[in-house]
Amino acid sequence: MSKILYEEKKEKVKAESEEFLIAGEDKSYITFTKDSTKITYNAIDKTYSFKNPEEKVRASFYVELIEKYNYPENRLDTEVVVPRRTPSDKADIVIFEDDEKKNPYLVIECKKDGITDAEFKQAIEQVFGNANSLRAKFAAVVAGHTRTVFDVAGFKPSERETNVISDIPQKYGPAPKYRFFKGVSEKDLSVVPKDELMRALEKSHDTVWQGGKLAPTTAFDEVSKLLFCKLQDEKESTITKRGEPYKFQIGTHESPNDVFQRINKIYQEAKIKDAEVFREDIRLEPKVIYSVVEHLQSINFNKTDLDTKGIAFERFMEDLFKGKMGQFFTPREIIRFCVKMLNPQTNQLVLDPACGSGGFLLNSMDLIRNNAKNEYPNDATEQYRMWHDFAKENLFGIEINDQIARVCKMNMIIHDDGHTNIISTDSLRKFDEINDIHKRFKKDYFDIILTNPPFGATVKSTEKDYLDTFELGAKNKKRKNQKTEILFIERCIDYIKPKTGKIGIVLPDGILTNSSLQYVRDFIMERCQIQAVVSLPQFAFSHFGAGVKSSLVFLRRKGEKETLENYPIFMAIAEHIGYDATGRKDTVNDFNKIYNEYQKFRKRPKSYKGC
Questions:
Q1: Is residue 453 part of a domain?
Q2: Residue 390 class from Cβ within 10 Å (0-12 exposed, 13-18 middle, 19+ buried)?
């Protein structure tokens, strides 16, 4: 292979976490046909179809055994016939202790990434049967990043827990106590692409979900707790110092309870420092935690590219919550457009009083992160300081659902923090009550509000004591009830700074058109300048469980004594918004054109002719 082609392929494969395949081909351990449909293991002259996902796992691990674990190529074999078992039973890979290949040492069963826990357990029984029949000392099951290695010779044939070892021994040596060490070359955690990260998260959720034993959202909660422990282990030197073995892993001959005790210690200590992230203890059995650790232990979340882990986690959340809890998720195309329209700056405070999973806040952070790259193109440290300080000090969120508030905090932590100013309460409560929870949630305080408030719910005066504190509630005119979205309008206006504060809010079209709601429109115009209204298609939120026709409304709060004569308002209709009614991607997106037209309007609002 030419050096240019090699480098091109290296980059491509590296992105797919298949670097061992590159090394194997480069060093002639393996050879592919031109169309990459078949693979040959050169030392044993055996050829197989490379279309099979399990073959890809086997090929990569075969090279890893040679390159990383230093086993002689001439002592490896594939598809080894197992005596005393059915003819179809063959061991995927066997390492022998001798050149004649008469004394099996390690037997390996290879499975595709993403198999279920039940399938993984079945593979364990299969490899034990093969290892015992071949009288090998060790056995291993490899399914992508989920790997388990057993000491077969030193334990009873039925043992499946105390004989687990942390990793395959290096070239016939002793089993290592631990496999992963912080900051130690060749022993540190791996950075993975988003597809592999997604599979690891999905496997973890399925393990915790236990086939329906827990509700999907409860299972997500528990996975988040364990993921939080893993991130703490990776980031905090007070938990694991450089050169030490990571705490979030399975050591040789450790029981599920041993692993649980170590991880629970991380959780309990972190919970004391940051009680707002998780208030409850881990509610999983040690065996379940043990399995999740198997799925996640080898992955380096901290060093995985921010976009990669952010997208993986958001897709993971969407798949779990869409439908049942779709009201907590605003489509990212709408979020990005709103953030772009209000364009937050590093010195501005951004609030979402109905923050859900944190989409508006995270996209505001991403905008600042991109600005930091442009401002400090050659200074990664300054880039990080700029956007990380913004995330930590300038992003605020309120979420009424405690479980979703934890999802938001976890989402922020995955994105390298910013969870400090997320609180769980009712945004419509009295100001002093919210301020008692967090001192920085004050009236007339924020520069920007970006939000998609809950629609359709009714606040009754008999149920909530705050209705008469709102002018749109019962303060000026006695009302027995009021819609939440109407109260949210007033609350948003009260939260932002007079004269300069701006709001981007999703509102049902009824507020903009119904004659019975003229008093709401009058209230908005009395206190704000309406800068833009962008009508959304009927299906905009249907994929997320809501079908109310809505618009995006952009406002600027007036100064205390500010009056405005008749002024132009930018109006637009978005028919294509980057996805269709089924949620599939639409290559057409009117938001880009609308944004560009709005910039023209801002420069010359009175002479703007539209398009």
A1: yes
A2: buried
